[in-house]
Specification:
Structural class: mainly alpha
Oligomer: single chain
Number of strands: 0
Shape: extended
Order of helices and strands: HHHHHHH
Strand content: under 5%
Number of helices: 7
Distance between the termini: 47 Å
Length: 150
Amino acid sequence: MDDEQERLLPIANVGRIMKQILPPTAKISKEAKQTLQECSTEFISFVTAEASDKCHKENRKTVNGDDICWALSTVGFDNYAEAIVRYLYKYREAESLRAYQNKGNSTQEENHEDDENRRGQHGKQTDELPIPLEFRVMEKGDNSHQARSS
């Protein structure tokens, strides 16, 4: 595999994402998948570079979700940034809830032993599925999410 292919997103994943939005009978050419693969990789690199520059200026080494949201907004993708901020908020809420529930179920010693027993080869949890989060695509100007309470 050459250097160009190594830096691109996996084409199978790109094709899978493309199929999700199209009718089941639609066909996608290899050229279309490759084009979207290149464009999406470039977009991710562009946004990540903006976020990384911000971190560098702030003498930080780790890019976080807030940095990505800031970068999206900075490069003119405000609508996407707003959606991702909402998603990030829900994700953090879910993680806090999970941590609180884990802490309340047993003592810290028991939690520590359980965590060590559940960790796989790379230190990741092996017996738990991630908490499903809802992510909706909204039309521009649709403020219906603001009327609902979380």
